[in-house]
Structures are given as structure tokens and as C-alpha cells.
Q: What sequence folds into this?
């Protein structure tokens, strides 16, 4: 940013907020910067993107690590996205199939897999559909579990 003439504390201010893995904190953490009049929100993850967009629908949002922004209704297309949200998505049918195929290469005898999801992620319906499609393409069975609390992982 300094190459573009931005110097923190002089002509740009960066606010950092962390939910510390607690999805219920995301909405509150988004409200404070919005009330301070932020000009751009940079965030990661579908939950944070939705919270930022709900809090500031006219503020540009740059994201990383979300599910398909077109499927979520945040973008008209991947290029150009249109609207106020842009960034990078780590999901896609091709990637899910490849990830599952890599697991099969590690354990070729495995025919049943489990996919764990954070229950608070608003992108889960899309993810579940994509994961099941990927499993069908590779001829394996997929069990999807939405986890709300760490204690549920034991079960």
C-alpha cells in the first residue's frame, strides 16, 4: 500500500476485528467499523461476508475464502461481479471433485467419506449440494455433518 502512497496513520486507517472462531460475534464486530464510516471492508468467509453486507450494503466488500458468490446471490458473475462484493472464492464443483479425488488417492479402498461444516455458515446449503454432487461423480458415499460446537466433534 505504501507504493500507492498510503501510510497508515497519515492518510489511511485500518481497523482490525477478529471473531476468534465464534460466529455469533461476527455481526457485532461488523457494526462498529460501519458506524465509523469505513470506506471498504476486507473480510474472509461466508459468515463474515453476509454480516458485512447486511450491515453495510452500499460499502464495497473485498472477500476471500467464501463459497460461490454467484450462488450466494452476491455477484452477477465471477468476472465482473457487479454489485458491492468482489474477491476470491475457494469453492467450486471442480475443486470439490479434485479434493475428494485426492482423498481417494490417499485411501483408495475408502468408499464412504464425511464432510464437516460449521453450522453457522450461511453457505452450507450450497456446499452440501456441491459436496454430494462431487461424491456422486466419483461414485462414493458422502455424509455431511453440520457442527455447532467443538464438543460435537467427539460424537
A:
Amino acid at each position: 500500500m505504501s507504493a500507492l502512497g498510503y501510510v497508515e496513520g497519515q492518510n489511511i486507517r485500518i481497523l482490525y476485528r477478529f471473531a476468534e472462531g465464534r460466529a455469533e460475534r461476527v455481526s457485532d464486530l461488523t457494526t462498529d467499523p460501519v458506524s465509523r464510516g469505513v470506506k471498504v471492508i476486507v473480510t474472509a468467509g461466508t459468515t463474515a461476508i453476509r454480516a458485512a453486507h447486511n450491515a453495510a450494503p452500499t460499502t464495497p466488500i473485498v472477500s476471500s475464502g467464501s463459497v460461490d458468490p454467484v450462488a450466494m446471490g452476491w455477484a452477477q458473475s465471477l468476472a465482473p461481479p457487479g454489485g458491492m462484493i468482489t474477491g476470491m472464492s475457494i469453492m467450486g464443483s471442480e475443486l470439490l471433485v479434485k479434493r475428494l479425488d485426492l482423498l481417494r488417492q490417499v485411501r483408495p479402498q475408502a468408499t464412504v467419506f464425511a464432510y464437516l461444516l460449521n453450522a453457522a455458515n450461511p453457505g452450507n446449503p450450497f456446499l452440501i449440494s456441491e459436496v454430494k454432487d462431487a461424491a456422486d461423480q466419483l461414485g462414493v458415499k458422502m455424509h455431511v455433518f453440520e457442527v455447532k460446537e467443538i464438543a460435537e466433534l467427539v460424537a
